[in-house]
Amino acid sequence: xxxxxxxxxxxxxxxxxxxxxxxxxxxxxxxxxxxxxxxxxxxxxxxxxxxxxxxxxxxxxxxxxxxxxxxxxxxxxxxxxxxxxxxxxxxxxxxxxxxxxxxxxxxxxxxxxxxxxxxxxxxxxx
Length: 126
What we know:
Elements: H1 7-13, H2 20-35, H3 40-65, H4 71-75, H5 83-94, H6 99-115
Helix pairs in contact: 2-3, 3-6
């Protein structure tokens, strides 16, 4: 949704105290995490991680899509200095690169890590 409405990012950055709508959203996510077996502490960690990932991805996507055409800059730059960027760009050109697939890849990593998290030890650690 934020990808389609990038103007909303500014609203998120300028938000003050949580209003009832945001509180309902956060409460619902925390409830889902608790129902899935997360401890209170792990649910808070998971929410923070997921929220930060989504928000960061949307900001990055918006910043990349709002840049003017960079072809002229790249044509004037010696790419020999950036072999890893060249390698990634060539790979992306051969494949069907998708920002959505990048998001899904990262989200699957996060969810897999959360699913495989060690059980809390009861001593406040882990």
